[in-house]
Amino acid sequence: xxxxxxxxxxxxxxxxxxxxxxxxxxxxxxxxxxxxxxxxxxxxxxxxxxxxxxxxxxxxxxxxxxxxxxxxxxxxxxxxxxxxxxxxxxxxxxxxxxxxxxxxxxxxxxxxxxxxxxxxxxxxxxxxxxxxxxxxxxxxxxxxxxxxxxxxxxxxxxxxxxxxxxxxxxxxxxxxxxxxxxxxxxxxxxxxxxxxxxxxxxxxxxxxxxxxxxxxxxxxxxxxxxxxxxxxxxxxxxxxxxxxxxxxxxxxxxxxxxxxxxxxxxxxxxxxxxxxxxxxxxxxxxxxxxxxxxxxxxxxxxxxxxxxxxxxxxxxxxxxxxxxxxxxxxxxxxxxxxxxxxxxxxxxxxxxxxxxxxxxxxxxxxxxxxxxxxxxxxxxxxxxxxxxxxxxxxxxxxxxxxxxxxxxxxxxxxxxxxxxxxxxxxxxxxxxxxxxxxxx
Length: 440
Hints:
By secondary structure, the chain is an alpha/beta fold. It has two domains: 40-306, Spore Coat Polysaccharide Biosynthesis Protein SpsA, Chain A; 321-426. The chain is built from 17 helices and eight strands. It has an eight-stranded mixed β-sheet with strand order 3-2-1-4-6-5-7-8, with helices on both faces. β1, α2 (53-70) and β2 form a beta-alpha-beta unit.
């Protein structure tokens, strides 16, 4: 770090390094000392955590092996950015090492990746954890970074190669993950975030909120210039913010096929209104930030994809369609006035007609759903309601759409389910003129 910072105002146990414009993270004294010893690195891997002692050891081992096998000559650092775990997570990170190099087909010992384990500061959430990762990446002037979730059960050493080699060897700036996921998993992505971001920004980044990303050091520095760390970006909104910021600012984008993403899947009918709010709110805020960029885009293009695609076995995701439809129907009674205000009486009548269908016959038309998402974006832009109330009122509609999708693909294979998602994306693209025309 740059010399000349004063530690006189720092809290006990920390020193205050020189902070560039827009930087407010204060590193603990021991982290500052580590940064000074390391001085510079080529690669940084960030692992955010909070009470992940049961899974993070596997993640750290996979990262260590990936670095040893695929980047043996690169100086690498693993950063565990922790949210105050009390289950021994950070001790697991510190104690995890590669014991047997021959078992991973390396016949000579390589310099192990250095570790920095530190709590993050700021709003509790993944975004604040990433901010610390970005700060350390900048301090060490790294060329390539990757971040991976701490609860992954399916991560392999090859993930590190796939996320980083496009950055280190092919001059890409951002590598999004591409997974095979169960057809009932990732429903916020499938029904809202992927179709919306694809139509807005014209890039077919299939998993814009996938959680595991590769990015260049210059992108990490660029992220730190943005004043978003007191917003929902600091919570669940970080993934869509990272992807959209990279795409909208014309950084060189790619995807990497990582196989299956297996962690702890959640029932899409469970209480997820807070996550839905934070992700969708972040996506709508980004529409405000990059309105001049997305208004000019028509259609969409594939992005380069690295990795060998193969079929993988996936864990089944249990869903409760009846519960989702009950929440949808309750919304018609409880949110009538809001829905009429946001959607207009015509689309609201179409929603009422859906309510009268039996569960067996229930289907949510793709065109209606597209207009709903666009109308919510327009209402957000025009500040028709406070953002939290507005976006949370979308939850019953989202659950109705999700229930419909589950029913539509229940007897279909994964490729046919993916085709249905692609059809929805095409409707979003075809109806984009409705959005741009209404955005004043």
